[in-house]
Fold each of these.
Amino acid sequence: MLDAKTVEIVKLTAPVLKEHSHDIGHRFYELLFSKVPELNNMFNQTNQKRGLQQDALAYAVYEAGANIEHLDAIKPMVHRITQKHRALGVKAEHYPVVGGTLLAAVKDVLGAAATDEIIDAWGRTYSYIADIFISAEQGLYDEMEHKQGGWIGVRNFVVDRKIKESDVITSFYLKPEDGKPIASYEAGQYITVWLDIPGEKYTHVRHYSLSEAPGKDFYRISVKREEGRANVPSGIVSTYIHDHVDEGSHLKVSAPAGDFTIYTKNTPIVLISGGVGITPMISMLNTIVETQPERQVTFIHAAMNSKVHAMKEHIGKLARQHERVKSFVCYESPTEQDRAEHNYDKEGFVTLEWLSSVIDDKQADFYVCGPLPFMRVVLRALKDMEIPDDRSHYESFSPVGILEEA
């Protein structure tokens, strides 16, 4: 346990670290990659360039410090991070170098304000929290290693089928190269794909939500092609997968992980997605229909229009076949054909008023996934609808915990 003096120093200085969080995160990764360049292979290089990974680190450090006396408050964050660490292969031996580098970054940014007493207190705190992470991650490794069809590290898979779902989203059906069983998973979880792309210095790693119900002899991921736009380049990985990964291609994959999962109870459930955020929601919807057909499901999806709306026919078919499933669609910019066919329920953006009108039971459990601006709006609406936090769940494809302001 941490002594009272250490706890006091950390609580007093946590706001200072938060104030300088971006600079500390940036300096940390500069130092880390200069010390251990091979760790570049574990990180999303696009998030690094955009500064998202740096902000994610600083957010986690601040949350740990601010809640040092009540670590139960950060259990959800710890669970989410340990799941990603297991998927990435983070090990106990990585923690000392990360801790030393983090403290060096704090000293570099804060200068004389980072006294030896403060650095020592944060060093003790880091070691204390690192032990919590290491123990939790070892449990996850042990569980996956002994799970039927489970594996540690990467395993070779072959693309069995490649199916275009919309103008921007394509599904890839993956089967194990060795023909042996694969680990099951919970609806909403993801697998991690490791790609060595010609011309790229480091391995690119991406987490992709599984977009089918578990229990099959394959994994399905549905990948959005990220086209470039103002000040944002095209996605290196997504364009490579769309253009160069075909049926018969081989991919290195880490076993399923993730904490964004549905509870197996019979309460009504509302699934709200935007854009490619539909992928884990499809897994959840298919799972409920297969295993809990009596459960009430409201499926709400927002997209630009039908041209980029993946799996629309499948969702519509389920809604027609199962009276307990309701589907609602919001298009920001419907095409002329969309308007002629009246194949959507709302034009424009998702709003509090519209959500309130289509959600029958506010005692339901709510799951949200999509672009960050979309999720901020939806989570803010759920708060305004007085949905308790323990019934409001979300998955962010960004590493940054920036939804606390919602």
Amino acid sequence: MTEIPHWLDKQAQLHPNAHAIESPDEVLTFRQLQELSQQIAGGLYKLGVQEGDHIAILSGNHINFAAFIHAASYIGAIVVCLNTRLTEKELQFQLRDAKVSQCFADNDNYMKGARALKEMSDAISITNVDEIPRVEKETYEQFKEFIDMDEIFTMMYTSGTTGNPKAVMHTYGNHWFSAVASSLNLGLDTNDKWLACLPLFHVGGFSLLIKNVVYGMPIVLLERFDLHLVHKQIKNNQVTLISIVTVMLQRMLKEKPLNYPSSFRGALLGGGPVPKTLLHEADSENLPVFQSYGLTETSSQIATLSPSDSFRKLGSAGKALGPATLKVFKDGTPAPPNVVGEIHVKGPMVAKGYFGHPSVNDDYFATGDLGYLDEEGFLFVVDRVKDMLISGGENVYPAEIESVLTQIKGVQEAGVTGTAHKEWGEVPIAFIVKSNLDEVTKEQVTAFCQNRLASFKVPHTIHFVSELPRNASNKLVRRKLKDLIDGGGYE
């Protein structure tokens, strides 16, 4: 067991009056963030939250989200981060699967959470985050002074290729080493200030809350990606770094010239390789782009490509970060350079497993992604999580959508794949074999999906076909779905 002093307590001691979190409406110093987090922790105690409890947070990007996760750490409760874009049905599954005892939601999501819980027989309560009692110092002696790096801190859902979402269990150590690895890779300047506009319930956004308390670095928290506010913060508020996905970079570059100050160090980009034309645009505007590769299971990025290598290694995700190792295996052995195989990763930021499922092997973790290493050790990702597509930075798994489609009366079979989209990068499209030609329409399919899937998972277009492409084992061959469009045979 490895323990360190509680990271928020340490920053409140070292830099009590330094800015911790800034938003357009509020600024908290590290001491104020500590006090607020401890008051909320006292309130959680009052509401019956105990060490080891699984408590869910259904919230957008608010300062109280940050205070809540630190409050949970003072108690030793495990935070289940819920995607606010999920439907009530999806929320119900995750609340049950994660064995959540209490759910906490912001104003915008409280009613959605309440409706989801109303249909469940489980004894789960829901509380508005803003209405958690603020309890003062009489409970402070109960708070954890040290963080056990091996203890589970958070659970975040990711979908497997079977379409069943699984909760990735992150330890404090996973988050700590992810932050340390990022610092070793990008460097850390005393004047750094990171702009957070990715959702905090995703590991890419959440990781900034950890960098905040590990580095003692201020973050600027926006509720969402707002182009006007992003430009304003970079130009006028000494922001040096920003985490974004490709579609956000495209929008930033629409307002040229950017005229960003020289102190701006660049954008850490997730969600796949950047098109060459977009890289050239960014380069012409002196906007450095750090392309990265990561998974929920790796607690954020695990490989990053330096801007200096962007054009020399076009399409690459870079090399593994300092504490991490990355290999490509084909047929159970390391693949030679430029030979495609499955990407495996290892390091202290890699999660130990999924809640309720067998533990991940302590050796290399098989990502399910296909890629290759070139002669210099640069990683190129060929296919992400086999058939997964990325729409606006969100991971979309075809099997999950297919599972919903086949619940529709009149749908005999369904296959889903992705197609290029100018704004979102990719969007899902569906191919359906009807059981009765007159029984289901495209409008009915869309309406059914909208009630059961997050908006980014709803098929962008629907094609009715006579049969789906399958191999000799009768397994669906998704890569051949779009051949149905090219060859006709759909309506």
Amino acid sequence: MVSRLKLQLGDITAMDTEAVVNSTDETLAAGGPVHVAIHRAAGPGLEAECQGVGDCPPGEARLTGGHNLASPYVIHTVAPTWQDGGGAETEILASCYVSALTLAKAHGIRSVAFPSIGSGIQPQIPLEVAAPVAVKAILGFLDANELPAQVFMVCFNAQTYQAHQKALKEALP
């Protein structure tokens, strides 16, 4: 399972995977830097398709086409609003990853690229919380499922990469 999860420093919009994950708001119309980058790279067709999808509650996921992206699919998910880290916030964040992976599996998607969901805009989930939640949720899913065959955690900067690298090392037996 660990060999199926790869950490990578880079631009998620340049990933050559079957799906990229977009961290967005409940309407699929707005979000932070990842959302803006994905929509910019995908072109106006993605925004138009998102308008017809409907709302997506925090922790759930929705699928659209990739339009002008190298990836044929975009999986949209909504992070919880971070307040104090109590209880349900980390469960909802884990659900973002599991819901996206479940949707990928249901559509036979073999490779998925994730950003660090919910850790990029205010109120942001602290990286020391977000990274372990992401790694544990992904590894748990991969341990129990054959698809997707490959998952990439695409980190946009060194700080995010290091946080996920640390979380991955701590998750290993």
Amino acid sequence: MQILSGQQLRALDEMTVHEEGITSLELMERAVTAFTGSFCKQFRPSSGPILIVCGTGNNGGDGFATARQLHRAGYNTHVVAAEFGKRSPDNQANFNAAKRLDFPFTLLRAGNPFPKPAPGVILIDALLGTGLSRPLEGYWAELIERWNETEDITRVALDVPSGLPADGPATGAVFMADHTFVLGYPKVAIFAPENAVYVGEMSLVKFKLSSVRTVLHVGPEGDIRPNQMLTEGYVATLVKKRGNSDHKGTFGHALLVAGSFGKMGAAVIAARAVLRAGAGLVTCHVPRSGYEIMQISFPEAMCTVDAHWYQTTGVGDLSQYATIGIGPGLGTEQLTAAALRDVLTRYAKPLVIDADALNLIAQSPSLFALIPKGSILTPHPKEFERLFGKTADSFARWRVQGEAAKRNELVILLKTNHTTIATPTGKIYVNTTGNPGMGTAGTGDALTGILTGLLAQGYEPATAATLGVYLHGLAGDLAAEALSQEFLLAEDVVNHVGAAYQELARVRN
């Protein structure tokens, strides 16, 4: 699904009004009807009284229309109409319609005391939406901070939390939502890791709009930001169907170069994930101290053994492997750096580079030029910083990520709560699966194994990355559902990859 900028969203609304021959007020009613439908599925009238704070722009107009619809649906509704600046025409129309109904309606001007919401209230923020042009300050900023500090209430943002720009970093007070109902299309700001505390649980509210293709040209040239959100329906189409005559040779032979003394667990987890993702064969190159560990822990894997007892110092013939995954638990010793250089020099096909392999490249930047085109790099934010330098915020980091992927013809994953996948074509995908329970040792190694297993099967690198990241997160979600987030281990994620495949098959069929 396309991720749109604020400018593109406004253009899409205008295009819908023009093409369908409707008024903008009718389009607002359509959006609000979809929102209240989603809201009512999550919150019943018995959930608590509703307090809707409405601004003077179109987001406030959404709020007034929401109040009208919820009141008619039997909710105990109270509207607070903030007064700053001139009301938009659609806001004024819904303001007038809401005032005619029989529920509490309070006007609020800067400087007026705002009553503290009572415990149990569901506070719906329709103050600003995407209409923010500068940081909030003064009375309205203090008001939002007061809401954020109020305990025993549920905070809901209508479209985006007030104070959060749609296309850039937050620099002032921001409404801290427990739930954000995003209207129409996702906005890039909701995926920034630093904004997670403001967005809370995100729900996408779909309603009929014109084709998004009509507005993709809107905006500055060279705008580099996440522009595609991965959805289950799209990812399900990426999975290859298996033929009756396929066999382990069909599904590829992967080499995994991983592990060092004291870090063999990373190699075991990654190796299991290679085969769980569907590869036919995996050979693990490990130091001598890891041979018995690998053979006993994962008998399905074959092994080649390094000359060194503690670390990898050299890998033999590479010609038989469909791909290579390198880095989990590898260590950063000089002899291992030399071995990495040797692998990158002799292997020309796309491979997966993770963890200590990325750290070795950051220490010796000349290694970067040796990375085969199409390879998949999987840094977390600190590894990304070591490779590409510091950035001010996620928006700047996304730009660097996209530029680096395009310039070097690589696929670069940036592992965060919403992992982004930058491809050489300039697209940046955002993942929507995964959960905080996956923030535990070894889950990154599992992802490396899944990506390696997909490349071994012949998936194109960008496809392997998008499918692999989504599959990894979905397996984590299914594992957390079965076991709880607190209980989750990386092994649980690997063991639920099959269930994740089944879920995608169900959607596809």
